[in-house]
C-alpha cells in the first residue's frame, strides 16, 4: 500500500541503486588505480608492498605472540601452530579507551598496549615471564624472547618486515604525533620500558593476516589469492607478481627480502579507492557524512562500505525523512502514538550502530517485531507504526545492498587483473569482519555482482571460493612473525 512515507523511502532508496554498468565502470577504474599504485607512491590506492613473499602451507610450527590494534578492541593472543593446518589460540580482549584513540599522545597509547601485553603474559605465560625477570636481575645476556606479530590495521608505509611508518589514521583514531613514526619502534620502546620478554618481529595489516591464516588453515595447490576485511573498516591484501611492483625499484631505503618466489603480498588499502570520486556513488548523505568526519576527502570507498559508516548513512537518511514536514516518519498521528525522545540516537552523530542494520535486514516477520525491538533498544523509539518500520527496512536494505555490491568492485578487479580465474580451476578468498559474517546475504550480493562482470560471468564466479577466516589477524600475525624469525636466524648464520 502506498503512503507518503513509503514513497519517500523508496525515492531515497533509489539513490542507493548501484547498477551493473556502474559496477563495471568501478572495476575499470579500480584496475587503473591498482596499476598506478604499483608504479608510484602517493597515489589514492596505496598498494603497499608488505615484504611477505610467501603464503603458508599449513606445516608451520611454534608458539608466537600476536597483538591486534585496529578496531574497537585491542587483542593480545598467543598462538600455538601445530604444523598440521591447526592451531590453538589463547586471547584477551580489551576495549580501547576513547581518550586514547583520539586526542592523546602516541606514548600513552603504546604504553597502554604494552601494559596489556604484560598482563596477558602474567596470566598465561608467567613461568616464562618470571624466568626472564630473573635472568635480567642476574645480568644474564641470554635472552629468550617471544616473537610477536603486530597487527596494526591502518595505512602504513612498510619499509621492512618489522618496520613501517604510519601514513594516516582511519576509523575514528586520531593521534597526530604518531603520523610518520615507525609504529613497530613505538611498540618495542614501550615493551622495553616494561622489561617484557618480547621482540616485535613482524608488522602486519589485518588483511594480510587474514590471507595468511586462510592459507594456513585451508591450503590447496593454489594457496589463497586474497584476504579481505569487511568490518569496522574495509581493505584487502592480495598476492602480486614482484615484477609488476615497479615502485620498489625506486624505493630509497628498505630492508632486504627473499625474492625467490617472484611474488609479494600487496596491502591495497582500498578504503581509499577513488578518493577523488570519479566513479563512486555519492548521495547527499555520503557527502554530509564525509564533511562531518574527522578525515574528510579520504577513505571515500570505506565510508560507503564498512560497518563504521553504514549506520551513520542510515541515520542521516532517517533524520532527513523525520524532519521532512510532508512525510510522517516517526510522527504521532490518529493511528500512531510513536515517541522519539530527545536523547534518541537518531539525533546524534554515529548514533546508529551497524548491528542495527543486520537485525532489521534479518527481520522477515509479518509484524516486523525485531525491527520494533531494535528501534526501541538502539534508538529509544517507542511504538513506531508499521509504516515507519517498513520505511526503515526499505532504507536499510538499499544501504546494505549498495555496500555489498560496491565490495564486489575490488574483488572483481583483483580477480581480473591477476588473471587467476583464467589460470586456475579454483580461486580462494579469505574474508573476515562483522559485515560478511553477520549482515544477511552480504556474500550473496557480492557473488551476484561478480556474475554481472563480463570478464567473470557465471562460470568464473563458480570458481571463486570465499571462506571466513576467523581470528585471521592473530594467527596470520603469528605466521608472519615465524617467517620473520626464520629469516633473522638465517641472516645470523651467514654473519
Ligand atoms: C585501514 C586498513 C584496515 C581496514 C580493516 C581501514 O580503515 O585503513 O589498514 O585493513 O580498515 O580493518
TrEMBL record:
<comment type="similarity">
    <text>Belongs to the hexokinase family.</text>
</comment>
<dbReference type="InterPro" id="IPR019807">
    <property type="entry name" value="Hexokinase_BS"/>
</dbReference>
<dbReference type="GO" id="GO:0001678">
    <property type="term" value="P:intracellular glucose homeostasis"/>
</dbReference>
<dbReference type="GO" id="GO:0005829">
    <property type="term" value="C:cytosol"/>
</dbReference>
<dbReference type="InterPro" id="IPR001312">
    <property type="entry name" value="Hexokinase"/>
</dbReference>
<comment type="pathway">
    <text>Carbohydrate degradation; glycolysis; D-glyceraldehyde 3-phosphate and glycerone phosphate from D-glucose: step 1/4.</text>
</comment>
<dbReference type="GO" id="GO:0006096">
    <property type="term" value="P:glycolytic process"/>
</dbReference>
<keyword id="KW-0418">Kinase</keyword>
<dbReference type="GO" id="GO:0005739">
    <property type="term" value="C:mitochondrion"/>
</dbReference>
<dbReference type="InterPro" id="IPR022673">
    <property type="entry name" value="Hexokinase_C"/>
</dbReference>
<keyword id="KW-0547">Nucleotide-binding</keyword>
<dbReference type="GO" id="GO:0008865">
    <property type="term" value="F:fructokinase activity"/>
</dbReference>
<dbReference type="GO" id="GO:0005536">
    <property type="term" value="F:D-glucose binding"/>
</dbReference>
<keyword id="KW-0808">Transferase</keyword>
<dbReference type="InterPro" id="IPR043129">
    <property type="entry name" value="ATPase_NBD"/>
</dbReference>
<dbReference type="Pfam" id="PF00349">
    <property type="entry name" value="Hexokinase_1"/>
</dbReference>
<dbReference type="GO" id="GO:0004340">
    <property type="term" value="F:glucokinase activity"/>
</dbReference>
<feature type="domain" description="Hexokinase C-terminal">
    <location>
        <begin position="226"/>
        <end position="483"/>
    </location>
</feature>
<dbReference type="GO" id="GO:0005524">
    <property type="term" value="F:ATP binding"/>
</dbReference>
<keyword id="KW-0067">ATP-binding</keyword>
<keyword id="KW-0324">Glycolysis</keyword>
<protein>
    <recommendedName>
        <fullName>Phosphotransferase</fullName>
        <ecNumber>2.7.1.-</ecNumber>
    </recommendedName>
</protein>
<dbReference type="InterPro" id="IPR022672">
    <property type="entry name" value="Hexokinase_N"/>
</dbReference>
<dbReference type="GO" id="GO:0006006">
    <property type="term" value="P:glucose metabolic process"/>
</dbReference>
<feature type="domain" description="Hexokinase N-terminal">
    <location>
        <begin position="10"/>
        <end position="216"/>
    </location>
</feature>
<dbReference type="Pfam" id="PF03727">
    <property type="entry name" value="Hexokinase_2"/>
</dbReference>
Amino acid at each position: 500500500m502506498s503512503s507518503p512515507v513509503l514513497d519517500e523511502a523508496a525515492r531515497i532508496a533509489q539513490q542507493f541503486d548501484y547498477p551493473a554498468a556502474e559496477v563495471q565502470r568501478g572495476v575499470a577504474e579500480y584496475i587503473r588505480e591498482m596499476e598506478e599504485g604499483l608504479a608510484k607512491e602517493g597515489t589514492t590506492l596505496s598498494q603497499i608492498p608488505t615484504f611477505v613473499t610467501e603464503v603458508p602451507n599449513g606445516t608451520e610450527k611454534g608458539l608466537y605472540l600476536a597483538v591486534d590494534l585496529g578496531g574497537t578492541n585491542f587483542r593480545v593472543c598467543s598462538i600455538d601452530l601445530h604444523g598440521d593446518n591447526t592451531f590453538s589460540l589463547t586471547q584477551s580482549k580489551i576495549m580501547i579507551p576513547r581518550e586514547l584513540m583520539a586526542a592523546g599522545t602516541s606514548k600513552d597509547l603504546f604504553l597502554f598496549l604494552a601494559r596489556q601485553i604484560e598482563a596477558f603474559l602474567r596470566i598465561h605465560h608467567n613461568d616464562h615471564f618470571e624466568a626472564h625477570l630473573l635472568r635480567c636481575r642476574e645480568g644474564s645476556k641470554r635472552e629468550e624472547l617471544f616473537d610477536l606479530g603486530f597487527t596494526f590495521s591502518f595505512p602504513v608505509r612498510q619499509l621492512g618486515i618489522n618496520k613501517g611508518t604510519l601514513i594516516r589514521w582511519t576509523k575514528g583514531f586520531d593521534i597526530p604525533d604518531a603520523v610518520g613514526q615507525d609504529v613497530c619502534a613505538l611498540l618495542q620502546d614501550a615493551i622495553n620500558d616494561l622489561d617484557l620478554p618480547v621482540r616485535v618481529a613482524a608488522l602486519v595489516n589485518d588483511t594480510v593476516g587474514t590471507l595468511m591464516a586462510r592459507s594456513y588453515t585451508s591450503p590447496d595447490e593454489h594457496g589463497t589469492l586474497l584476504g579481505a576485511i569487511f568490518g569496522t573498516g574495509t581493505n584487502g591484501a592480495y598476492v602480486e607478481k614482484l615484477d609488476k611492483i615497479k615502485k620498489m625499484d625506486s624505493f630509497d631505503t628498505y630492508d632486504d627480502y627473499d625474492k625467490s618466489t617472484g611474488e609479494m603480498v600487496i596491502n591495497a588499502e582500498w578504503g581509499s579507492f577513488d578518493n577523488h570520486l570519479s566513479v563512486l556513488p555519492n548521495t547527499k548523505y555520503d557527502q554530509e557524512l564525509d564533511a562531518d568526519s574527522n578525515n574528510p576527502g579520504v577513505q571515500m570507498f570505506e565510508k560507503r562500505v564498512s560497518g563504521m559508516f553504514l549506520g551513520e548513512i542510515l541515520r542521516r537518511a532517517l533524520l532527513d525523512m523525520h524532519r521532512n514536514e510532508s512525510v510522517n516518519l516517526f510522527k504521532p498521528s490518529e493511528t500512531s502514538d510513536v515517541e522519539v525522545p530527545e536523547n534518541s540516537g537518531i539525533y546524534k552523530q554515529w548514533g546508529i550502530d551497524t548491528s542495527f542494520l543486520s537485525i532489521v535486514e534479518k527481520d522477515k516477520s509479518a509484524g516486523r517485531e525485531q525491527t520494533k525491538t531494535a528501534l526501541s533498544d538502539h534508538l529509544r523509539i517507542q511504538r513506531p507504526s508499521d509504516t515507519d518500520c517498513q520505511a526503515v527496512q526499505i532504507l536499510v536494505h538499499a544501504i546494505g545492498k549498495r555496500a555489498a555490491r560496491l565490495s564486489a568492485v575490488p574483488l572483481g578487479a583483483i580477480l581480473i587483473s591477476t588473471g587467476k580465474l583464467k589460470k586456475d580451476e579454483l580461486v580462494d578468498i579469505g574474508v573476515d569482519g562483522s559485515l560478511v559474517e553477520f549482515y544477511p546475504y552480504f556474500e550473496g550480493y557480492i557473488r551476484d555482482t561478480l556474475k554481472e562482470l563480463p570478464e567473470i560471468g557465471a562460470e568464473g564466479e563458480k570458481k571463486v571460493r570465499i571462506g571466513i577466516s576467523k581470528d585471521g589477524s592473530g594467527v596470520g600475525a603469528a605466521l608472519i612473525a615465524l617467517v620473520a624469525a626464520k629469516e633473522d636466524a638465517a641472516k645470523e648464520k651467514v654473519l
